[in-house]
């Protein structure tokens, strides 16, 4: 058993670790060290040493991108660029990493804030006297791990360094985006994506030391945000900048864009998790730390020092355009307009994103001489930067004739008493998986260290593989490839729809088209999350959709199935769109949040969620700062959206809305209301999962709100009879078929969310 939460989270596979201590008043300085390692292969012509038994040193793709994105992000938290140290690729040796950590420690004074960010491989090392049940220490892997005598940097070494920051009274934040476990996931092995794990080292360090885990230190205010649970990988994926990144870091950056910069870590974590799941990843993040630290912002910076304004430095390029030192990592998008600090008559418009930390703009007001080197510009408008609402991957296909033959064999296996057939992968973890990859049938189970070829796709071969050497009845999952005729129909159906994107790289997908066999022996096809984890059954996004049986390869049948998959993709995209949407940071003051009150207990629903059969009242409740300044009256619209994509308008109902939904309205004593009950007696009904309650507060009324916020399916266009205003086009996200980006939207609306897990009693 692991000796601490800190040790558990490092052992727990793929870790992003944040640690912090409370800030002190005064001249607080902020410093950072960012490390990103993609290059692990030794230089050409160099034979690697084999001290620890490693024979392969796989390179990564997105670690340097992540580190540079983090460097860009922390400028919003007042980290000066001159106070940021950087180590990339071959420069990030073991000695260099430890030296830079110690230099950061030496520079930091009591009350200062320090950040260490690491993206690269993680692993394990033998420690026969370390006191761990598995005899392993977890580690981060330096770029020169292939050199003779170079060991990993173990968790015990890191704990000692972190404790020195705590001893010195420095508020330390550490983020690790890497893996520490080589355990293989089960149930969805066909879509392999790159993970940040390298084989463990067999070199025995024989270190009997027991450093105090940093999170167990009294008054250290230490916080850990972990990317994944035990035996899970920290995976890479393509970001909206079309560059590889760590899936967790992508979700972290996107979550920050959804909220005020001072949002508590608990709220940020909830958004981060939902985004990670909506991006198709099975890894389960974990948040651990004191309640006081969780109430602070991400890095624990004094709130009064921060602003939601996004301000970036600019310089004039020889082409006459302006280079901005900010990009996707800061939430910038094409169409964003920026005004010069202290001279708003100079205005720029972003025309190109050059990466996570840079963009290109044109001058729309003013002249080139107004853009002096080092001048600063502030974002003045809002544009959507979420990219496509849903990305779908089409695996390699076979002819419908072959799909029928595979389904016939699978149906025979499904009926066999020698296997336990898994038809609902979201409810049962398979022990054996059979899938089609690169023209071959593969089998994966605990019987083999790696996937093995099945051979001929026959019932006898499948049952033999499922039963294993002990001839046991085990849970079997079989995934069939899609029919080529269906793939052609899907490509045609999705072609002109800008909010749904078919991708050629599985790691970029939120969902994939999967194949199965119906009880009647027909091949069937549906959508499934890229990765499936049974613990995700309560998430906002379903693990899979229903499948649609195919009786023939006729154009009518294939087009009907493609239409059904398209409709499901629209519903899923609508859910994901609301999870990802960020309201304008400079929107006017709206200090209220949503709350569900259980009518039986008269208590607010907390993080444990509600249960099917409960009766609830939905209220808007004032935040503690609601009396800080005047609150503009707005039109409020509240709806619920479940993980199946069903949207239900909750407020206003019927013909109300012209006046009844204006809020807040001052009372008789000219006081703002502390709370407003919007709807009473909500009955919680199936399905289980995460229900998202969303309040849109707009300075302008929405005449077609009943159509916009009530949905079983998704219509094919903007509702007839109403003009498509910018905000209407935005919130009707699932219905727009036009090409190109959404139009810029005025900063006159707020968005308030409440996510509640619903379970059966």
Automatic annotation (TrEMBL):
Is Signal one of the keywords UniProt gives this record? yes
**Sorted alphabetically, which keywords does the UniProt record give?**
Signal
According to the record, the signal peptide region is 1-27
Query: What's any GO biological process attached to this entry?
Result: proteolysis
Q: Which GO terms describe its cellular component?
A: cytoplasm
Taking every annotated instance into account, which residue ranges of this chain make up the domain Peptidase C14 caspase? 31-292
Q: Which GO terms describe its molecular function?
A: cysteine-type endopeptidase activity
One matching Pfam family is Peptidase_C14
What is the protein's given name? Peptidase C14 caspase domain-containing protein
């Amino acid at each position: 058993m692991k000796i601490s939460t800190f040790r558990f989270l490092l052992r727990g596979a793929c870790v992003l670790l944040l640690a912090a201590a409370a800030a002190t008043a005064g001249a607080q300085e902020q410093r950072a060290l960012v490390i990103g390692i993609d290059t692990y292969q030794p230089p050409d012509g160099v034979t690697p040493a084999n001290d620890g038994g490693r024979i392969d040193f796989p390179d990564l793709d997105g670690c340097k991108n992540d580190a540079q994105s983090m460097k860009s992000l922390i400028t919003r938290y007042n980290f000066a660029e001159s106070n940021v140290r950087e180590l990339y690729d071959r420069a990030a040796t073991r000695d260099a990493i430890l030296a830079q950590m110690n230099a950061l420690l030496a520079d930091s004074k009591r009350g200062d804030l320090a950040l260490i960010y690491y993206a690269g491989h993680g692993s394990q090392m033998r420690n026969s006297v370390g006191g761990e049940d598995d005899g392993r220490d977890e580690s981060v892997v330096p770029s020169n791990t292939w050199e003779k005598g170079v060991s990993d940097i173990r968790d015990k070494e890191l704990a000692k360094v972190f404790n020195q920051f705590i001893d010195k009274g420095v508020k330390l934040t550490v983020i690790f985006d890497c893996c520490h476990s080589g355990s293989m996931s089960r149930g969805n092995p066909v879509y392999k994506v790159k993970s940040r794990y390298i084989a463990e080292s067999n070199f025995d360090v024989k270190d009997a030391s027991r450093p105090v885990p940093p999170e167990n230190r009294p008054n250290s205010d230490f916080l850990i945000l972990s990317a994944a649970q035990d035996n899970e990988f920290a995976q890479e994926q393509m970001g909206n900048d079309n560059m590889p990144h760590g899936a967790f870091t992508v979700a972290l950056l996107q979550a920050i864009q959804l909220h005020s910069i001072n949002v508590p870590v608990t709220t940020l974590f909830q958004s981060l998790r939902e985004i990670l799941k909506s991006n198709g990843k099975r890894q389960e993040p974990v948040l651990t730390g004191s309640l006081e630290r969780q109430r602070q912002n991400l890095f624990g910076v004094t709130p009064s020092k921060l602003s939601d304004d996004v301000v970036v430095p600019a310089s004039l390029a020889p082409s006459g355009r302006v280079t901005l030192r900010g990009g996707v990592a800061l939430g910038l998008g094409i169409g964003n307009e920026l005004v010069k600090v202290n001279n708003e008559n100079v205005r720029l418009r972003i025309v190109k994103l050059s990466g996570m930390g840079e963009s290109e703009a044109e001058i729309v007001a003013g002249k080139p001489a107004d853009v002096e080197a080092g001048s600063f510009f502030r974002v003045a408008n809002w544009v959507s930067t979420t990219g496509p609402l849903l990305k779908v991957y089409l695996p390699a296909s076979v002819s419908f004739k072959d799909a029928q033959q595979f389904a016939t064999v699978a149906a025979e296996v499904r009926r066999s008493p020698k296997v336990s057939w898994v038809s609902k992968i979201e409810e049962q973890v398979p022990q054996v998986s059979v899938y089609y990859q690169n023209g071959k049938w593969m089998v994966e189970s605990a019987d083999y260290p790696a996937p093995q070829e099945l051979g001929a796709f026959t019932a006898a071969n499948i049952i033999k593989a499922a039963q294993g050497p002990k001839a046991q009845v085990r849970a079997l999952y079989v995934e069939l490839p899609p029919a080529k005729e269906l793939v052609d129909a899907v490509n045609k159906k999705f072609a002109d729809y800008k909010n749904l994107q078919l991708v050629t790289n599985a790691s970029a997908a939120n969902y994939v088209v999967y194949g199965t066999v119906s009880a009647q022996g027909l091949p069937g096809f549906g959508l499934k999350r890229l990765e499936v984890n049974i613990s995700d059954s309560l998430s906002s996004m379903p693990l899979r959709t229903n499948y649609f049986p195919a009786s023939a390869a006729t154009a009518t049948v294939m087009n009907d199935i493609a239409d059904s998959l398209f409709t499901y993709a629209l519903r899923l995209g609508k859910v994901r769109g609301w999870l990802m949407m960020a309201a304008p940071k400079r929107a006017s003051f709206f200090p209220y949040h949503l709350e569900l009150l259980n009518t039986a207990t008269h208590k607010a629903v907390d993080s444990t969620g509600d249960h099917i059969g409960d009766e609830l009242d939905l209220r808007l409740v004032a935040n503690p700062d609601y009396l800080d300044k005047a609150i503009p009256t707005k039109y409020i619209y509240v709806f619920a959206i479940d993980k199946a994509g069903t949207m239900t308008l909750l407020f206003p109902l019927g013909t109300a809305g012209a006046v009844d939904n204006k809020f807040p309205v001052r009372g008789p004593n000219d006081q703002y209301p502390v709370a407003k009950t919007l709807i009473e007696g909500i009955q919680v009904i199936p399905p289980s999962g995460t229900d998202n309650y969303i309040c849109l507060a707009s300075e302008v009324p929405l005449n077609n709100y009943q159509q916009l916020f009530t949905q079983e399916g998704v219509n094919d266009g903007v509702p007839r009879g109403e003009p498509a205003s910018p905000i209407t086009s935005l919130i009707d996200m699932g219905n727009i078929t036009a090409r190109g980006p959404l139009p810029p939207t005025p900063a006159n609306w707020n968005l308030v969310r409440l996510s509640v897990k619903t379970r059966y009693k």
